Amino acid sequence: MIADAPAAARLNAPPDTLPARCEVLIVGAGPAGCAAAITLARQGVDVVLVDQHPFPRDKVCGDGLIPDSHNALRKLGVLDEVMTLAQPAGHVRCIGPRGGQIDVPGTLAVLPRKELDLVLCRAAVTAAARMFAPVRFAAPIEEGGRVVGAKLTAGEATHELRADWVLIATGAVPQALMAAGMSQRHTPSGVALRGYVKNPAMVGRIDKLEIVWHRALSPGYGWIFPCRDGVFNVGVGIADSHDEHRDGKLTKKEINLRQVFDDFTRVYAPARELIEGGEWISPLKGAPLRCTLEGARFSRPGLIVTGEAAGSTYSFSGEGIGKALETGILAAEAVLGGRGAGLSEAQVRAQYEAGLLALKPRFDLYARANKVNRHPWLADLLIWRAKKSERLLRRMSGVLNETSNPGHLISFKGILRLFTE
């Protein structure tokens, strides 16, 4: 181990120094991969962490940290460091098609993924994980029906690394899943487009996480999230970007995300003012989303899929950081159970998959809540009633804090209750 070396010096170790063996190989140094690496390395596990891009690196994301993110970051021991860099916020502002709005309280913050992932990766190497980049996953190494390592590539070079466990945490892009034989759906669940605009004049005017629904954006939504130093994350997302046919195949809908973004600035004046009076410091970039814990096998002998690769993003809101962290921790805890509690390989995988399945009902409820994106008038209805009902506002806040179910707000019974409670 090299725990006594400065952590910064151990980021992006050259690929030609990759070892021949480790206990756990983690592919992908985003929130899920780093959460697993931190959890394992702090328990003395020999962890190798690889990423296809050297750090710090950009990642397309809304950057919103909702309460589940705060809870996971606290568990990992990095919440204080994250919050020294993040822009805190006390509310999500929900804006309906007719301009009505309601501020939903919650423990929130915004931190660009370039900074968040760097904090997490540094924590992993400080815990003695070894991180190498740029390195790509090419294929698993299999013996006797079990994954026992991986073939990794760096430029033209190929390296074989043996490991007791391989964790795939490569996000929504499916190539690693496909190479590992774990992809059940190559197409994404949704798509998003975001950029960063600096406009100091909007500081204080936009101090909440703003989410906007409008007929012009359906079946998606727009957002403006305030970062620090007068910078704003602005974007649009569509959670249902593909249609499912009777044969089970998915085809991409005819969606022009750039046009949706332009429509966002047309129908929502603050977005228009932000951009017209601001400076683009990072252009609009698009990215796929994998949602609802669907689209991939969760495990096979010797291999575990975690984070957004496993579909850890909520379909209704596109939020995925917190659940990526949680699933990475779940994967690490399952592996630790095999190492310390003597669980068999099958029991480790069963424990992990049971942890994911325990989360699945909540993901399904978010999928039901996705009706708001398809039918924006539901947002008008919720906002109208929430402005008249403290109880409903508390329920909406409970959705953020995961004490209320989002799908219940817009079920038939939920809509009926809007008029009766």
Low-confidence stretches: 1-5, 244-248
First-residue to last-residue Cα separation: 61 Å
- In terms of DSSP E residues, the strand content is 25-35%
Radius of gyration: 21 Å
Q: What is the name of the CATH superfamily of the largest domain?
A: FAD/NAD(P)-binding domain
Number of strands: 18
CATH architecture of the largest domain: 3-Layer(bba) Sandwich
Count of DSSP helices?
Answer: 14
Which outline best applies?
globular
The pLDDT mean sits at 91
Helix content: 25-40%
Provide the domain count: 3
Q: Which topology of the largest domain does CATH recognise? A: FAD/NAD(P)-binding domain
Q: Determine and state the CATH class of the largest domain.
A: Alpha Beta
Structural class: alpha/beta
The largest sheet, given as strand count, sense and whether it forms a barrel, is: 8 strands, mixed
Written account of the structure:
- By secondary structure, this protein is of the alpha/beta class.
- It has three domains: 7-58 and 116-186 and 292-369, FAD/NAD(P)-binding domain, CATH 3.50.50; 86-112 and 188-289, D-Amino Acid Oxidase, Chain A, domain 2; 374-420, no CATH class.
- Helices cover 35% and strands 27% of the residues.
- The protein is built from 14 helices and 18 strands.
- The chain has helices spanning 31-41, 67-76, 79-85, 113-126, 175-179, 257-267, 269-276, 321-340, 345-369, 371-374, 377-386, 390-400, 406-409, 412-420, and strands at 21-27, 47-50, 64-65, 87-95, 101-110, 130-132, 136-143, 146-154, 157-168, 190-198, 209-212, 220-226, 231-238, 242-244, 250-252, 279-289, 299-300, 303-305.
- Strands 1, 2, 6, 7, 8, 9, 17 and 18 form an eight-stranded mixed beta sheet that branches. An eight-stranded mixed beta sheet has the order 3-5-4-11-12-13-10-16.
- A hairpin with a 2-residue loop joins β8 (146-154) and β9 (157-168).
- The chain is globular and about 60 Å long.
- The termini are far apart.
